User: Which sequence fits this backbone?
């Protein structure tokens, strides 16, 4: 994450917004202020960044799993383990992207404490936008800054493998 995103701070223009789309019964548009209304989790992280070396930060925000669950992923209750076919695509305003599986964040499976960070080192990310934080990653490549879209996609069915 660049220092310029952290420095964007509260006075630098309109609040950033991210769109939750895809196979959801309740798609939504979220701001950092909206994310701050969720139960907050903290992650003190250290990761390697190819562009700027080792980084250490304290992020706070809701769990990605909680936010996406509230949007109502359209899991088929008649299909055993249907949620395991869902993928989560995260895109930053700069075009940087990451792909996660639902199983990676689901407490019944991987249970990774992935955050939609609303603050970085105590500074709200209102103007810069939320950041994807994967505390378990040693490399910062999946730390997506300025998220503008998250898509949940369950289109990977058994028929697709035929």
Assistant:
């Amino acid at each position: 994450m660049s220092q310029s995103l952290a420095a964007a701070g509260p006075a630098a223009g309109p609040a950033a917004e991210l769109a939750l789309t895809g196979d959801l019964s309740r798609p939504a548009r979220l701001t950092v202020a909206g994310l701050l209304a969720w139960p907050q989790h903290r992650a003190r992280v250290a990761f390697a960044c190819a562009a700027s070396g080792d980084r250490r930060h304290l992020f706070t925000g809701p769990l990605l799993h909680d936010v996406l669950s509230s949007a109502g992923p359209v899991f088929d209750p008649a299909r055993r383990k249907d949620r395991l076919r869902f993928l989560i695509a995260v895109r930053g305003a700069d075009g940087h992207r990451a792909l996660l599986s639902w199983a990676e964040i689901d407490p019944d499976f991987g249970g990774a404490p992935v955050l939609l960070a609303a603050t970085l080192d105590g500074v709200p990310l209102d103007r810069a936008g939320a950041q994807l934080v994967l505390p378990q990653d040693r490399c910062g490549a999946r730390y997506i800054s300025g998220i503008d879209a998250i898509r949940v996609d369950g289109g990977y069915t058994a028929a697709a493998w035929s």
